Amino acid sequence: MKFSLAAFALFVASATAFSPVNGPNSRTALNTATLEAPVDTETEDKPVVIQQTRFDRLKKNYKGFQKPVQDDDVEELSFSYEDFKEAVAETSYSFERHSIVKGQCIEYEPKGVIVDIGAKASAFLPEAEAALIQPPGSIVNDLVALNTELDFQIISDEDENGQLLVSIRRIQYRSAWETILQMQTDDAILEAEVVSVNRGGAICLVEGLRAFLPGSHLAGKMATDDLIGTLLPLKFLEVNQENNKLVVSNRKAVVETQMADLSRGDLVEGTVQALKPYGAFIEVGGMSGLLHISQISYDRIEDLEQVLQPGMAVKCMIIDHDKVNGRIALSTKTLEPNPGDMLKNSAMVFEMAEDSAEKYHTKMEEERKARESAARDIVLGLGDSLDGLGDDLNGGDSAGDSSADPLADVSDSLDSLLS
């Protein structure tokens, strides 16, 4: 019996130890085992490592150690808090559309440039807005430089990422119009490059803006492809900023620069530009002059092409000019040593042109003096014939006086009527 009680007690103890509540896998058993486990003194001596957050890591990398400011340090600073407050008040950051801000290009992109303008996000400069003048084949790397402070105009609102679009071209566009308006006010002569031609004339670049040059306002030139790339002196005919319209004239500029020094009788050199049935057009210093067929030679010309050819260098005398419209009339027959020399040997005429022109001026001066002398003799002869007539008018009796004054009787009649 004693054995049976002892066996029963052992069975109950074993069942309790391996029950779901008090089994070896239970939380109580583990906690008890943990509490009763021996303490590792080496683990307690190690410092506890706290895992840093992403913000703490960025702060450590970019902010650095922040030393607390002491009162002694504040006294040694030359820039006080009041100065800082005033500086902040004077500094304004406007990132509204159309406002002008300063910034730097920091990175090239395939279709533009990343720009730092001090906003919360970098701005973007599209390639089309990088410059007003963009030569063919140029890329954005050729138009703007990195790490250089420039002015930018904001041309958009912030997108979902807080980014703005900026432009340099629009600032240059506005500046170009201001320059053009000032040049128009000053009536200045400018030089511009021809970039293309069309049926009506040519297109020139004036301060980066496209200006139309009518073909009728080209001085001594034709609107052909050969004109592309040349520099021409120009003056403004029409300036309209509202309609973005510029019209210029080459002839007007040439008239003022060259024709101011020209006068009748001057000997000039030129090139035959074109032949017409009525004469030849001669290019003289950028101007177009007409050499009429009647002014080529004293002899009659049957075939003009046998005398002159396009591209031929000639020497002519100016016989008339229109400085307002830039037109000049030319002559070669005044340079002929003998009538008909232009048909026989034009090269000899051009070689002796200076001497022939001097002789022509001498002859014209002699003829002028002869005409003045003849006119003076006529006036003196009329004066002698009027001397007797003057005596008759001044002499005579009262009857003669009455006849000399045909209005005397009329005056007496009026006095009688008014009395």
What does this structure look like?
It contains 14 helices and 15 strands. It has a five-stranded antiparallel sheet. Among the domains are: 54-176, Nucleic acid-binding proteins (OB fold (Dihydrolipoamide Acetyltransferase, E2P), Beta Barrel), CATH 2.40.50.140; 187-256, Nucleic acid-binding proteins (OB fold (Dihydrolipoamide Acetyltransferase, E2P)), CATH 2.40.50.140; 262-361, Beta Barrel (OB fold (Dihydrolipoamide Acetyltransferase, E2P)), CATH 2.40.50. The chain is α+β, with helices and mostly antiparallel strands. The radius of gyration is 52 Å and the shape is elongated.
Order of strands across the main sheet: 3-2-1-4-5
Q: Can you tell me the residue ranges where pLDDT is under 50 for at least 5 consecutive residues? A: 17-37, 396-400, 402-408, 410-419
CA(first)-CA(last) distance: 194 Å
User: Proportion of β residues?
Assistant: 15-25%
The ordered string of helix (H) and strand (E) elements is: HHHHHHEEEHEEHEEEEEHEEEEEHHHHH
Supply the CATH superfamily name of the domain at 54-176: Nucleic acid-binding proteins
Number of strands: 15
Individual helix count: 14
Shape: elongated
Summarize the main sheet.
Answer: 5 strands, antiparallel
**CATH fold-level topology of the domain at 54-176:** OB fold (Dihydrolipoamide Acetyltransferase, E2P)
Question: What is the percent of helical residues?
Answer: 25-40%
Radius of gyration: 52 Å
Write the layout of secondary structure elements.
Elements: H1 2-17, H2 27-36, H3 41-45, H4 54-62, H5 71-76, H6 81-90, E1 100-109, E2 112-116, E3 123-126, H7 140-143, E4 149-154, E5 166-167, H8 169-186, E6 190-197, E7 201-206, E8 209-214, E9 231-240, E10 245-249, H9 250-258, E11 267-276, E12 279-284, E13 287-292, E14 313-322, E15 327-331, H10 341-344, H11 346-351, H12 353-394, H13 398-404, H14 408-418
Parallel strand pairs: 13-15
Antiparallel strand pairs: 1-2, 1-4, 2-3, 4-5, 6-7, 6-9, 7-8, 9-10, 11-12, 11-14, 12-13, 14-15
